[in-house]
Amino acid sequence: MKEIYKIKRRQLLKLSSITLGSSVLAACTNQTSTPLTTEKKGKLDKIKFALGWKAEAEYGGFYQAVATGIYQNYDLDVVIQPTGPQSNPTQLLLGGVVDLSMGQAVDAIRAVQQGIPKITVASIFQKGIRILLAHPGVGNDSLAQLKGKPIFVAPGAITTYWPLLKAKYGFTDDQKRPYNFNVSPFLVEKNSAQQGILTSEPYIIEKQGGFKPNILPLADAGYNPYTFTIETTKKLVETNPDLVQRFVDASIKGWYSYLENPEPANELIKKDNPEMSDDLIAYGLDKLQEYGIIISGDAEKLGIGAMTDERWESLFNELVTVGVLDAKTDYKQAYTLAFVNKGVNFYTES
């Protein structure tokens, strides 16, 4: 039950939309972990950086930059701030509690629609980790084969990927079943599918169900927004672009270091999140590498963190077509390419 609870809380945050109704104070006072900071003090610029959830492999590069002194080399004293179920990184960012935070492209465009002054400066993940899972050996081996089958989805799916699945594969709303972040209903109904995160639900299903589920990435359906992005306020980009640049560069180098030797960061991850076992961290990192989540596509030449105008435009047009986003939105205000795309050699040799 402990594992199920963790997945529930993690997914609730990752699938939530931008909400500014609750107070920033409430978001701050519900933190569950103590931030980690560099040991070296002195004339370092202090940065507070909010994660999208608790410490885990998906944030390994940031912890690696702390553990190996990369941030210090860029004259930064970085405090990594995990978040919890009552926290919203956008609230923390706009309230001035943190300087930068994790985000995702769809929410960034919605922020433009809502007049929220934040901006995406890098994307750590080139591929989305949102997936559907199906039982093996029952003929549900592709997204197309799930047409007409029961699918357990959370409410957030309705305003993100579900409209795309309906348009591309002919899915219908009567297929939907409520997903309460408990894998048990899926385990019982062998002809069903359920949503999940690549680094989480497959692991839980293997442990509880005793089998490896079919993993069907939603990126294969064309739903592949930039995720695990780095966001900050437009004000910081305008007033202190050098600080933003140093954080982005150091973080990207931390990711290259983590993929090469994850042990330094993993020790900090376990310290900051005692629920993370060596096995679960290794599983998460393995899936990130196996599926090319971090280094693939544009990142192969432009470096980790890469973004392009073409990817943003494609995402926007797809979601406008299925009614998820307003066609009048100036989506280009959601991001800037000024801090990324320097090439792999810049991050690995300089």
TrEMBL record:
Provide the leader sequence positions: 1-26
Q: Which UniProt keywords apply?
A: Signal
User: Record's Pfam families?
Assistant: NMT1 (PF09084)
An annotated GO BP: thiamine biosynthetic process
Q: Which domain of life is it from?
A: Bacteria
Protein's UniProt keywords contain Amino-acid biosynthesis = no
- Give every SsuA/THI5-like domain span: 59-265
UniProt-listed PANTHER family: 4-AMINO-5-HYDROXYMETHYL-2-METHYLPYRIMIDINE PHOSPHATE SYNTHASE THI11-RELATED (PTHR31528), THIAMINE BIOSYNTHESIS PROTEIN HI_0357-RELATED (PTHR31528:SF3)
Q: What is the name of the protein in this document?
A: ABC-type nitrate/sulfonate/bicarbonate transport system, periplasmic component
